[in-house]
Design goal:
Elements (H helix, E strand, L loop, with lengths): L21 H35 L4 H50 L5
Helix pairs in contact: 1-2
């Protein structure tokens, strides 16, 4: 075809089909949700252990540094967990929109606009 680069000139083998089945999006959403839920107690446990160690070393410069480190990790890991959890919601929304769009296109082309 004129004007289209071949797979070789685009840098590798690629399909012209870019679709992702909604069930794959939902599976990815489920995996994201599980990861976010699994991370929460583990992050809390790690941060609490670091804070406990910092308390045990109160008065030492290392204790204060460990407390600061624990707080920074708590913020960073909490933000990461929230982003993963948000990806679950967004992937489900995309799957729902994809399904709705497929049904809308079907209705439009089938002439059955009553569905």
């Amino acid at each position: 075809m004129a004007g289209r680069a071949s797979a070789e000139t685009r840098g590798g083998a690629m399909s012209d089909k870019l679709g992702i089945p909604p069930q794959d999006l939902r599976a990815s959403a489920g995996a994201s949700g599980r990861i976010a839920r699994d991370l929460e107690p583990r992050v809390k446990k790690a941060v609490n252990k670091s804070k406990d160690a910092a308390s045990a070393l109160k008065g030492w410069s290392f204790g204060a540094a460990l407390e600061t480190s624990a707080e920074e990790w708590e913020t960073a890991l909490g933000a990461m967990r929230k982003r993963i959890a948000k990806s679950e919601e967004l992937l489900r929304d995309i799957a729902d929109m994809h399904t709705w769009n497929d049904h809308d296109i079907y209705r439009t082309f089938s002439g059955d606009l009553k569905r």
